[in-house]
Specification:
8-stranded mixed β-sheet, 20% strand, Rossmann fold, globular, 6-stranded parallel β-sheet, 2 domains
Length: 310
């Protein structure tokens, strides 16, 4: 089978996250099973416009917003006559609209989550209001008859509530590589960890504030921040109780998470919350906000959900 997937970024992009991990793990497995797989995404500094890796053909073009136009151009000039059997429109808030310009080939959508409240954390107020109440509802209405895959029951419920009619859940998993689990070393102080992009919609400042409140009762409690983003520098200046690692290797991330007593996950919403699975595999429980996506992953990992406030 020949498959084309359109996404706004691939795993080589510096702002990639759990959605890109999920997508590329699936594509690599399809390639291993003999399928011909192409991923089209936005350009990445220092990476070629086209390359092959792990059995997947990567095609890149356009900026964060220009990728949608470049995707249509690539399909018109290359993809339409390349004999694809299936097209997947991976929706990260804005769809590519493949169902409008792909003809003769089945189109399905992959939607990890809705944006909804995230608009107000990532955009100035006028743009957030436009996105939340005009653009996103319009995009969803245009896809109400498109078959949709999502990754959690709560995301499916949100999509159905917004008028999408053909929504299936494809569960998330992680590779069971036991040899990658590091030996746990008890930290000198009580320690929690936050893993993710240091961005407003992930609310790492809530995790830090929760630790600062808890330090009234556990004076030597520390929080380790793993990940980069616009909020990192400010959080690192909060005091010695905050250890901001920035971006680290996968092995170093596993070591930090394995040695923590707990993980805090404070996102506005998630499609699932892959960091919860990754921490559980290392024996570290998660305390997370009771929001879409996390309510599914935390329950599956036998963690704990709390109300969304520090």
């Amino acid at each position: 089978m020949k498959i084309a997937l359109f996404n706004w970024r691939d795993l080589a992009h510096p702002a990639s996250g759990g959605a890109e991990v999920f997508t590329e793990q699936v594509l690599q497995r399809w390639a291993q099973w003999g399928h011909d797989v192409t991923l089209f995404s936005s350009a990445v500094d220092g990476r070629p416009a086209e390359e092959h890796a792990d059995g997947v053909r990567y095609v890149r073009g356009g900026s964060r917003f220009g990728v949608y136009r470049e995707a249509r151009r690539w399909w018109r000039e290359v993809g339409a006559d390349a004999g694809f059997d299936l097209v997947i429109d991976e929706v990260n808030t804005r769809p590519f609209g493949c169902h409008r310009w792909v003809t003769g080939v089945p189109v399905v959508a992959l939607m990890h989550q809705l944006a909804r409240e995230v608009w107000f954390f990532e955009m100035p107020l006028p743009a957030a209001l436009l996105g939340r109440y005009v653009l996103e509802p319009r995009w969803l209405r245009s896809m109400r008859h498109v078959p949709v895959m999502t990754i959690s029951d709560s995301s499916r419920a949100s999509l159905v509530d917004n008028g999408l009619q053909r929504v299936s859940v494809v569960p998330v998993g992680i590779a069971p590589d036991a040899d990658q689990i590091p030996t746990q070393v008890a930290p000198s102080n009580p320690t929690v960890v936050f893993v993710g992009r240091m961005a407003a919609n992930k609310r790492p400042h809530h995790a830090v504030r929760a630790v600062e409140i808890a330090r009234q009762f556990i004076p030597n409690l520390e929080i380790h921040l793993v990940g980069d983003g616009p909020l990192r520098a400010g959080l690192a200046r909060r005091g010695d109780h905050v250890v901001a690692h920035g971006f680290v290797s996968a092995a170093e991330k596993r070591r930090i998470v394995a040695n923590a007593h707990a993980q805090l996950v404070t996102s506005v919403r998630e499609g699932w919350g892959l960091v919860v699975d990754e921490a559980a595999r290392l024996g570290t429980p998660s305390f997370a906000y009771d929001v879409a996506g996390l309510c599914d992953s935390v329950a599956a990992a036998d963690g704990h959900v709390v109300q969304p406030r520090p």
